[in-house]
Request: fold
Amino acid sequence: MSTTLTPPQPKELRIIREMWVPIFLNGECLAFAKALHRGLGWPIMGLMRDERIVHAAVKRPDDTFHDARGVVERDD
Reply:
């Protein structure tokens, strides 16, 4: 089995932004990071507070991070 990621169409992007981004930023960020990791092979990174992961994303080859919002800087 192989997975191919294709760019979403404009209508799909609108749906993603309006419906799915809030879900993947509020409680399901690890699931989204796992999907990106499986599809792209980028390592999963966690933002830690004490000993708890409060947000997960993947680290891109250009040393930026990617979550449901798209590319995010380390400080974000």
